[in-house]
Amino acid sequence: MTQVAITHPQWQPICKRSDLVADSGVCALVGDPSLGNNRSIALFFLPDCEPELYALDNWDPFSKAGVIARGLVAEVDGQLTVASPLYKQHFRLSDGVCLEDESVKLNSYQVAFDGDTVCIAVDL
Amino acid sequence: MVKQKLIVIGNGMVGHHFLEQLAGRPEKALFDVTVFCAEPRPAYDRVHLSEYFAGRSADDLALGKVEQYREWGFELLLNDTAVSIDRENKTVTSASGVSKSYDRLLLATGSYPFVPPIPGHEHEKCFVYRTLEDLDAIRNASQGASIGVVVGGGLLGLEAANALKELGLEAHVVEFAPGLMSVQLDEGGSELLKNKIEDLGVTVHTSTATELIEEVDGRLRMQFKGERELITDLIVFSAGIRPEDKLAKSAGLQLGERGGIAIDESCRTSDENIFAIGECALYNNFIYGLVAPGYTMARTALAQLCGETSEVFTGADMSTKLKLLGVQVGSIGDAHGRAEGAAAITFVDEQSGIYKRMITDGEGKKLLGAVLVGDTGDYDQLLQYHLNDIELPEHPEQLILPAADGAAPALGAGALPATATICSCHNVSKGQIVDAVQGGCCSLAEVKDSTKASTGCGGCAALLKNVVDEELAALGVEVNNNICPHFAFTRQELFHIVQVEQIKTFPELLEKHGSGRGCELCKPAAASIFASLWNEHIHKKPHVGLQDTNDTFMANMQKNGTYSVVPRVAGGEITPDKLIVLGQVAKKYNLYTKITGGQRIDLFGARLEQLPEIWRELIDAGFETGHAYGKSLRTVKSCVGSTWCRFGVQDSVGMALEVENRYKGLRSPHKIKMAVSGCTRECAEAQSKDVGVIATENGWNLFVCGNGGMRPRHADLFATDLDDETLIKYIDRILMFYVRTADKLQRTSVWLENLEGGLDYLREVIIDDKLGICEELEAQMANIVGTYQCEWKTAIEDPEMLKRFRQFVNTDQADEKIVFVEERGQPRPAREEEIVKVAEPA
Ligand code: SRM
Ligand SMILES: Cc1cc2nc3c(=O)[nH]c(=O)nc-3n(C[C@H](O)[C@H](O)[C@H](O)COP(=O)(O)OP(=O)(O)OC[C@H]3O[C@@H](n4cnc5c(N)ncnc54)[C@H](O)[C@@H]3O)c2cc1C
Ligand code: SF4
Ligand code: FES
């Protein structure tokens, strides 16, 4: 990985299509722990939705643990969300806003397939 | 404006009801209210006093709250008994020396338990059963005691006997009269009740007069007339109540010949400024020992005080329905058929222990009274015939005969006139309930809240629900028990659909019967139903996304995102070698180790990516998953039983192992816990479990639907002295019936409480096969038992499944946010402030 400071979001490959689990989440690491700019990202793959990929921070601000990727995908009032596995708050997949407390928001990231590779736009 | 001074003496259920009603009326502004309350706390629910032993606290039972009285502006003097009334100067003086003047005075002093003057009755191990303090004293005395006797076989005496039994004592009831509950029941009814109660292990001594109580070797000896005697550790007197009329007597108010403050239709005593209501009051030479008539008097007295002179009390119905020691008893109106020309129709089924008797007028047109023992299913209907003078059908006997002998013309809620009283405690008519529903109350809870119906003794609950449901249906409102917005079905309906249409996946279910994409309510519920029916691995492709995180990773997530590992230790029995393996694994992966409340060992702090390795080592050593994460069988607790214990009468460990191994892996609406005890000392605490088994000399007693946890429930005795085979057969059926019919996340305790017909109905379904489904239930269970797999064993052998157990899909690094610190020689999750320290190297 280059050590140049990146000042604009940059698309980067993050994992393979086969790493994803349909209708559920997985977690990926971007950045470099040794540089202290690493970040855990929760990736959700909903094959028959538009869009079909979502990326949010994996860190749950309520429970203070990295667990969002392990939440259950739930539709609430027509909105796609993930329910935190610990205290069950719902975060909207499209923008990370918490439905129970709109002042809380997870960072959300652009994410897309490039063939069989999953790419994410992250500003590190 | 000068306010009238109103003093209320006594803050029991009736006095409180009066004040609560007053607080809700505009006339409240006309009175300055002072209340003398002899007890240390404001009014509480005496009717449900016994629930104090079943876990309800004094707070739960409270009716009046100190703050509430303050808000109402009523002066409440707790712990202060009124000791004299000066009618000339219109003042009341209390034990603490407070003196207050009044314009109007209300006596609501209730009654006190009558203690027959048997020599020795004042011994410190003799108690009465009236106040919370009495119950505390009984509970204290029961510690270390083994036998308890209740003197008095009336309604309250039997309730007290039940309480003694629940406190773990061997209970006896000593009754002077030849029958139990002689006020309510006729001879046939009380004989049957006696048999039923004896079947439940309470010894009943009727026609028995106690002549002497004396202490012998630290215990009590009761000497009965005719040489008989009984040794006991404590005695509870429940030989009737006497009106608390001392104060009225010393004030010169007119009393009845045998006590009671005489009142007229307006609830006034012989002094027109003094009213009396509740159990201290005597109307028409009658004391009403129930709460509903007291409430009616309270409303009358209040109306009179407010100038509504047409509002009068003309007596009240004394019908009661109750469940004593699990036996249902109901008595309506003139149960003894004392009225002139009365005719009786009796139905007895000795085999099932059912006794029903109706008293009609000479022409058989009106129902004067009824007695029901063993089955009160007809109570509501009969009561409505009685209270509303509804003309009986041509063959009135059909009202009490079992349905098979001729269809009883059901008197639905719809047949009742609008004036019919539904709730006698709060005097709520059908009309008022209908108005409440039409006025926008859309659920039972809202109707209760708005009308107060069914918030007293609770006896009207079933009827109220019928009226509300019927009215809602008439308005076209659907009663919504739907599982979530995506499925317009209850869990039970969904279960049926999945079973009948053989649906195997969530998308199929959603497409055929739901809408949207599902949520955290319907997905796990559907996954559980699929598992109960088809028992496929929960990680099979279509099911993966349906599970809660604990099921998904087959481990319980802890607060810092790590997991706990709980291998099954069936029956709590474990070999030294296996214990060593647990220790070695815990040491290798640095896991916090703790003995759980379920007789097994929990290893905490495993990272997601470590779970498969840890499980591989455990499985190699012969362990299997403990399903600590699933809505499924958790543990079957056992005591050591006859193998080692000098008291054991059966091999409880063996039975616990058989049961645990049979039902492990069964997915259910909520978790299921069981226990097997080797004798009646009950060291495995089986009576707090969903399924409890207790060894007897002849086999096993089966208890069902107990619960620990947030709202503990004592399990009900379901069947006695079963052989191994019958025991398993019944458990099979009960569990499958529960799995089929319970709501999502409903423990067996709540399920049973909501099951119409309750325990008796459950027995009919399981033992008598009333629904003809037992064979099917057993086959379904056999299928689950036959297709059991250790989910972890399957998972570690399947690379696809293992892929899920990666912290990051793109690197093998560990999650650096998970930090442990050491405490008491073991790791634990670091607290936030501790993590900051770790993250900031000096
Ligand atoms: C580990 C253990 C405590 C311990 O250190 O001893 C425990 C731990 C938890 N219990 Fe428990 N319970 C444990 C024995 C009990 C018992 C005692 C027993 O089983 O004899 C009870 C009361 C008995 C009962 O259930 O009737 C108990 C009543 C509950 C309840 C309340 C259930 C209820 O009906 O009110 C919950 C909450 C729930 O299930 O909704 C609960 C929930 C939990 C959860 C799952 C809470 C959570 O969501 O994180 C805890 C996580 C378990 C884990 O991470 O492994 N736990 N829990 C015990 C595991 C026993 C085992 O070997 O499987
Ligand atoms: C265990 C049990 C179960 C019952 N079950 C049922 C049932 O299922 N259905 C039913 O209808 N009824 C039942 N009852 C009866 C019901 O509780 C009574 O009918 C009801 O409590 C009567 O209310 P009350 O206000 O008249 O008397 P109480 O509730 O006895 O209140 C009287 C209060 O006045 C106080 N007091 C007395 N003298 C003075 C004084 N001089 N100064 C100040 N305070 C004084 C007393 O300490 C007491 O607190 C049951 C009773 C018991 C004990
Ligand atoms: S009692 Fe509460 S804190 Fe303790 S284990 Fe059970 S759920 Fe957790
Ligand atoms: S009749 Fe007692 S609560 Fe309704």
TrEMBL record, chain A:
Rieske-like [2Fe-2S] domain location: 10-120
GO cellular component, one term: nitrite reductase complex [NAD(P)H]
InterPro entries: NirD, Rieske-like_NirD, Rieske_2Fe-2S_sf
Pfam families assigned to the protein according to its UniProt record, in alphabetical order: Rieske_2
Protein name: Nitrite reductase (NADH) small subunit
Known EC number: 1.7.1.15
Any GO BP: nitrate assimilation
Enzyme kind, highest EC tier: oxidoreductase
Molecular function terms from GO: 2 iron, 2 sulfur cluster binding; nitrite reductase (NADH) activity
Source organism (scientific name): Microbulbifer rhizosphaerae
UniProt entry tagged with the keyword Oxidoreductase: yes
Highest taxon of the lineage: Bacteria
Alphabetical keyword list: Nitrate assimilation, Oxidoreductase
CDD domains tied to this protein: Rieske_NirD (cd03529)
UniProtKB/TrEMBL annotation, chain B:
SUPFAM superfamilies listed in its UniProt record: FAD/NAD(P)-binding domain, Nitrite and sulphite reductase 4Fe-4S domain-like, Nitrite/Sulfite reductase N-terminal domain-like
Keyword Iron (UniProt): yes
Keywords on record: 2Fe-2S, 4Fe-4S, FAD, Flavoprotein, Heme, Iron, Iron-sulfur, Metal-binding, Nitrate assimilation, Oxidoreductase
Pathway the protein takes part in: Nitrogen metabolism; nitrate reduction (assimilation)
Record keyword Transit peptide present: no
Ranges for domain NADH-rubredoxin oxidoreductase C-terminal: 319-383
Pfam family, one: Rubredoxin_C
EC number(s) on file: 1.7.1.15
Domain Nitrite/sulphite reductase 4Fe-4S intervals: 630-766
Residues noted as binding [4Fe-4S] cluster in the record, renumbered to the chain: 639, 645, 679, 683
Positions annotated to bind siroheme: 683
BP GO annotations: energy derivation by oxidation of organic compounds; nitrate assimilation
Domain Nitrite/Sulfite reductase ferredoxin-like: from-to ranges: 558-619
Co-factor binding comment: Binds 1 siroheme per subunit. Binds 1 [4Fe-4S] cluster per subunit.
Domain FAD/NAD(P)-binding intervals: 5-294
Cofactor(s), names only, from the UniProt record: FAD; siroheme; [4Fe-4S] cluster; [2Fe-2S] cluster
A GO MF term: 4 iron, 4 sulfur cluster binding
Record-annotated BFD-like [2Fe-2S]-binding domain positions: 422-469
Gene3D superfamilies: 3.30.390.30, BFD-like [2Fe-2S]-binding domain, FAD/NAD(P)-binding domain, Sulfite Reductase Hemoprotein, domain 1
Database matches in PANTHER family: NITRITE REDUCTASE (NADH) LARGE SUBUNIT
Subunit structure: Homodimer which associates with NirD.
Family: Belongs to the nitrite and sulfite reductase 4Fe-4S domain family.
Protein name (database record): Nitrite reductase (NADH) large subunit
Source organism of this protein record: Microbulbifer rhizosphaerae
Lineage of the species this protein comes from: Bacteria, Pseudomonadati, Pseudomonadota, Gammaproteobacteria, Cellvibrionales
